[in-house]
Specification:
alpha+beta; Pnp Oxidase, Chain A
Length: about 210
Amino acid sequence: MYIPRHFEERDARRLLELMTRHAFATLVTVGEDGAPFATHLPFLVEQDASGALRLLAHMALPNPQWRAFSAERDVLVIFQGPHAYVSPTWYATAPQVPTWNYATVHVYGRPQVIDAGDEVLRILRDTAARYEAGNERPWTLEQSQEYVDRLVGGIVAFELRVTRLEGKFKLSQNKGEADREAVMAALERSPFAGDTELAALMRAREDAG
């Protein structure tokens, strides 16, 4: 990924926070024929005591992508955070041009198919638990255990041990303080949730110095 120096994000905590919050990501592989292939999946992001990261996910068995997994070839997972159009009319100074502010994390590693049935069920259970957490009566795997057991043979679960992270937080760092403040204020007035989330991310970085 092309990352100008002032947009590079190296803070592991910020990268992990974005990956966890925006865990529906894009898995990109390259097959033996050199053609890229992408699948959009919800990922679990786990960190062990040593700080090492791994991603866990599953896809449909008929999806051919998992057959391209190789111990000799990295794959890419793209986590896309909040993003928004920035109008030149928002800035405190002129002239300006339109641009786009955004935050994204690229994750690299080599995936491995998980064969152990108990671990596959654990991934399904934890994935459901995460997204059911806000429901008044959360659904659990156990409520449909027999049905889940029949369907589990139709999926492929896998893990990816992370070897490299790239973070790009393009948040007007190349602009002066007055211009950054004007952009944040405009985003905070927006009716769109993604715009206000981006403004909050910009504010957090300003407050952190």
